[in-house]
Amino acid sequence: MDDLRIGFVGCGTHATNNLYPMLKYARCRLQAVCDLDRELAERNARIFGGQAAYTDAAVMLDAESLDGVIVVGPPELHATVGTMVLERGIPLLVEKPPAGTLADAEALVRTAREHGTTVMVGFMKRFALTYGKIHAEMRAGRFAPSCGFFRYTHWAGNSLPGMLLGMSIHPIDLAISYFGDVAEVTAVPYDTGSVLSLAVILKHTSGKWSELMLGCHGPRIQEHVELSGVIDGKHGYYVVDDIIHLEEHTAGLGGVDVIAPSLAEIRPEFDLQDIRTWRPDYGIPNMGQNTPFLAGYAGEIREFVDAILEHREPWTGADEALKAMRVIDVLLQHPAGGTFAVTSG
Ligand SMILES: NC(=O)c1ccc[n+]([C@@H]2O[C@H](COP(=O)([O-])OP(=O)(O)OC[C@H]3O[C@@H](n4cnc5c(N)ncnc54)[C@H](O)[C@@H]3O)[C@@H](O)[C@H]2O)c1
């Protein structure tokens, strides 16, 4: 099959900077571009090699023969234009959140199923090289995670829906990707009036838990993840800092110091704890170690295109799309916090 013909709706800041440039890394070409603002649509078609520019998504969908459509903009756009795409039986990739509400996200998934096609949500963190490497270790049976901590303090505001749908959806989805479906959520909010922070504990149906530190007075970019478990038969944990730094810690010598009969007998043991680290090496040009790959944007676009070519459900497809939204729906219903069950739909 020739390269897929992709249509793209939305020529905003994030789409233009982080997603359009990724198309060149996937087996596709940009066929058509759409934005309400004609200048933006024509600009993106010109810069990224689109064959045609439109200001009306319905007109674009009727005029073009597209194999897949990407929609990136406000959450309502994902739901409305996304529905138009799916009703035509065309596979859809929408940015997170898939819609502004759980009900609208569920409707999107229903529409995809009714029309025999797929909807994928752009949970790009799963495709980041570090988080992806941990997934690969799990798939290879080398890492069995037991619990995790996710510090996501990028969001410094006091809008609960804004924070949950705009940012926290990422660590919630990551936690689900490592520990499985969520059975119960406990939330403790702290609101200073200008900054809202939220402590969240997810109890997964696997019996494992994850803990999320959201919002807060952190530096603007602050993302820190720790995943504990058994690595290659040893107790240990992974640390991911700012997406690009990965550490693997495993316990040597049982993980404890030798009890020496006297202080004079103490001998330092260098393998008390084994630590391996990975970080990008920018010393020489290396295509794989640039931000698009490190952050997961290239992997996300590739997964969308490959899933279409291989006639399969994408990794962050219909089922996965709703899981994080269900947790967020519960949190939004109970802004004062507490412990609540999460249904699996
Ligand atoms: N994963 C990430 O790292 C990340 C980062 C930033 C933003 N995002 C997500 O990206 C989205 C925002 O993307 P952006 O910054 O590119 O958007 P933006 O808000 O900058 O621009 C949206 C564009 O969509 C166009 N638009 C609106 N309605 C339309 C319609 N009916 N038909 C055609 N075009 C229409 C607007 O004219 C505008 O140009 C949000 O959903 C956000 O959650 C994700």
3D architecture notes:
With 345 residues, the chain is α/β, with parallel strands linked by helices. It has 2 domains: 4-121, 3-Layer(aba) Sandwich (Rossmann fold); 126-286 and 325-341, Dihydrodipicolinate Reductase, domain 2. It has 10 helices and 15 strands. The protein has helices at 13-19, 38-48, 57-63, 75-87, 102-114, 129-139, 160-179, 291-295, 297-309, 318-333, and strands at 4-9, 28-34, 52-54, 68-71, 92-94, 119-121, 143-152, 182-191, 196-204, 209-215, 223-231, 234-241, 245-251, 273-278, 338-341. A 9-stranded mixed sheet has the order 14-13-12-11-7-10-9-8-15, covered by helices on one side. Strands 3-2-1-4-5-6 form a 6-stranded parallel sheet, with helices on both faces. Helix 4 (75-87) runs parallel beside helix 5 (102-114), helix 5 runs antiparallel to helix 10 (318-333) and helix 7 packs across helix 10 (318-333). It is globular and about 85 Å long. The model has no long low-confidence stretch (mean pLDDT 93). Residues 9-15, 34-37, 40, 57, 72-73, 75, 77, 81, 95-96, 122, 124, 166 line the site of nicotinamide-adenine-dinucleotide.
Keywords:
binds nicotinamide-adenine-dinucleotide; 15 strands; 6-stranded parallel β-sheet; 9-stranded mixed β-sheet; about 30% strand; Dihydrodipicolinate Reductase, domain 2; alpha/beta; single chain; 2 domains; Rossmann fold; about 350 residues
Quickly describe the structure:
With 345 residues, the chain is an alpha/beta fold.
Do you know the CATH architecture of the largest domain? Answer: 2-Layer Sandwich
The ligands bound in this entry are:
nicotinamide-adenine-dinucleotide
Do you know the CATH topology of the largest domain? Answer: Dihydrodipicolinate Reductase, domain 2
Work out the helicity level. 25-40%
Task: Summarize the biggest pleated sheet.
Answer: 9 strands, mixed
Specify the number of helices.
10
Total count of domains: 2
